[in-house]
Amino acid sequence: METEYAGELELLGEAECLALLTAHDVGRVAMIVDGQPVIYPVNYVVDKNSIVFRTNWPILAHASLALLAFQIDSVDVGRQSGWSLMVQGMGHDITDALDSASEHLQAVPVSPWVPGPQPRLLRLIPWTISGHRFRGHQA
Amino acid sequence: METEYAGELELLGEAECLALLTAHDVGRVAMIVDGQPVIYPVNYVVDKNSIVFRTNWPILAHASLALLAFQIDSVDVGRQSGWSLMVQGMGHDITDALDSASEHLQAVPVSPWVPGPQPRLLRLIPWTISGHRFRGHQA
Q1: What is each CA distance from B114 to A84, B42, B56, B110, B111, in whole angstroms?
Q2: Which of A5, A36, B4, B105 sits a CA distance of 20 to 30 A from A65?
Q3: Nearest-CA residue of chain A relative to B134?
């Protein structure tokens, strides 16, 4: 069975990752809930090197002061090409925080498309950012 | 600060989730590595109710006999609408398995676009499938 795949892979630098993050506003956050990974889509805003999104209490319980992964990608199915990047870091509930960085972020507009109460503002402070562009062998 | 968001949310049934899974071939898998969630995009195939994708040894160490989340979505940014679904279950390395179900899945063509060695075939057996359609208030 063939297990080596042809194609092209190019690592993205941190600056390019940050530019892609800033240019988009829908991503996916993964957290650990009862020992299992879960993935939720979120509307987000990047401010400097923080990723900010709104969430509800049940999710917050697993996302604040917890290690998170955040991922965005763009895929062209027809051309079998695209890019993907991942941020890892810790989530901080800054809804009621009084420090100046949090007060600045509290004024950033983040409007989820999913209806319902999302009273908590979560800040993901990245520790690592990595990404790559890829192109399949049929491209 | 406004924290209740308008819009529409419709839960997807399991049959609709399976139909969407079958109709797509690029998703994202989350696993836990050293206590941290990570998210990787993968090319996948659905066969009956198994999700099958290829992977490499480093990832396999965290994905086989481990709890995984698998997610796909489709978002229309302009209309602020889309859908998202998540599968949770356990990953099984079936590369060398001799049971009839695994032998059947070993013949299913799964071709990653990302180049390089991906010698292991992973089967995700779903325990739960859930999803929703959403539409933002500006749609």
Answers
A1: 11, 9, 11, 12, 9
A2: B4
A3: A114
